[in-house]
Amino acid sequence: MNEVALTAWMDLTDGTANGVIVEVNVNGTKDWGRPDEDGRVDLVLPANAVALIHFRKPGHLTKTVSVDTHNMRDSSFKGKKAGLTFAVKLEPDTEKEGLAYAGPVATITFDAASGDLVIEQEQYLVPVRQQKVVF
Predict the structure, then answer these.
(1) Is 48 left (phi over 0), alpha (psi -120 to 50) or beta?
(2) Engineered SS bond to 109: which of 11, 22, 64, 68, CB 3.0-4.6 Å?
(3) What is the count of structural domains for the chain?
(4) What is the per-residue pLDDT for 133?
């Protein structure tokens, strides 16, 4: 197995996918794209890689999902085509101005022993550090 198809669905209950930018960082290489009008984002990730996928929209908190394809094997998908699907909902920053997520809101990995899919979520908000200009 040398790659996995990933589909992210943007939750559009609060509007459209207009303005959403999806930035993907895989093994030091950056790429970006936009969801289609239905909020769908399709990516293909290589095996044995760590991808950071950033979902950004002006006026919303940025969310990052980490996907680690190490330890992925055919048995991870129980005979189905290698693919992952998840949803992302971007929240307006109006009530959370000055805050950002402390790290990825979800981490998707594969167990080293079994190859089973493991998903962890952490959605801790922390204050954004103020950058001071030093003269």
Answers:
(1) left
(2) 68
(3) 1
(4) 56
